[in-house]
Amino acid sequence: MRRALALAAISTAALTLAGAAHAEHWMKFADGGNGIEWSYDADYVYKDKQTGRVVVMQAISKPSANLMPNGPDKGGVGSVYAMDCEKKNVINLGSYKPSTPYAIPAGWRSDTPKKLGGPEDEALFAAVCPGMAKYPVK
Description:
- The structure is a single chain.
- Strand 5 and strand 6 form a beta hairpin.
- The protein has helices at 2-21, 119-128, and strands at residues 26-31, 37-41, 46-47, 54-61, 78-84, 89-96, 114-115.
- Strands 1, 2, 3, 4, 5, 6 and 7 form a seven-stranded antiparallel β-sheet that branches.
- It has 138 residues and is α+β, with helices and mostly antiparallel strands.
- It has one domain (24-134).
- It starts with a helix and ends in a 10-residue tail after the last helix.
């Protein structure tokens, strides 16, 4: 009985750690100036059921300063976009940083889309849009 309980505890701990380790899968998509890098969380990308837009979380990093890409719950700095891959425009769902809690605004679907903001946005589209068909719909 003790062995079964110990094995169950070890299995539960291993599954918990495995889930936490795979919670974010950052993929670098662009280099910026001064050693800055841009990445997106491949585990966060999904297709919005109501709009068909691809929703993606991106983060900035600077490895030389030990700032790595992270989500809002882990002290990261970045933003979340809803992207129209066909029309090449975005709705910015907001930015996040350690001092500001992040929540997706309820009315974002009615916001006016903006044109791409520069080479980093273009690189994000090039990295994310080809996989549109495989993203989960939420």
